[in-house]
Design a protein that fits this description.
By secondary structure, the chain is an alpha+beta fold. It is built from four helices and six strands. The chain has a single domain, classed as Aspartate Aminotransferase, domain 1. This is MmcQ/YjbR family DNA-binding protein.
């Protein structure tokens, strides 16, 4: 996966905004103001994604390129290396899963605005 593919996919999801709250090099994607994905804009080597805690552990055990979230709550976040043998299709699924986890935590009114 490359940076452009990552950006285009994230922005294709309903209600997503692209922001730089942590500085000009940290690209952050939010839905309804809540973070679901981030990466380094200059060195696109990994993506931080929210993950169900049990699934997070399973993915870390199964895939060499998946580790506890760098600078994040390690129970709920994984860092996924972008230049590994993890197929793009799987990366896209994990991005969508991260988005869906955040959307599920939103108030009903916010979910309805997103068509959920």
């Amino acid at each position: 996966m490359n940076l452009t593919q990552f950006q285009e996919y994230c922005l294709s999801l309903p209600g997503v905004t692209e922001e730089f709250p942590f500085g000009e090099n940290t690209l952050v994607y939010k839905v309804s103001g809540k973070l679901f994905a981030l990466t380094d804009l200059v060195n696109f080597e990994s993506i931080n994604l929210k993950c169900d805690p049990e699934t997070a552990i399973e993915l870390r055990e199964r895939y060499e390129g998946v580790t506890p979230g760098y600078h994040m709550n390690k129970k709920h976040w994984n860092t996924v290396e972008t230049h590994t043998n993890i197929p793009n299709k799987l990366l896209l699924e994990w991005i969508k899963d991260s988005y869906d986890l955040v959307v599920a935590s939103l108030p009903k009114k916010e979910r309805e605005k997103l068509g959920q």
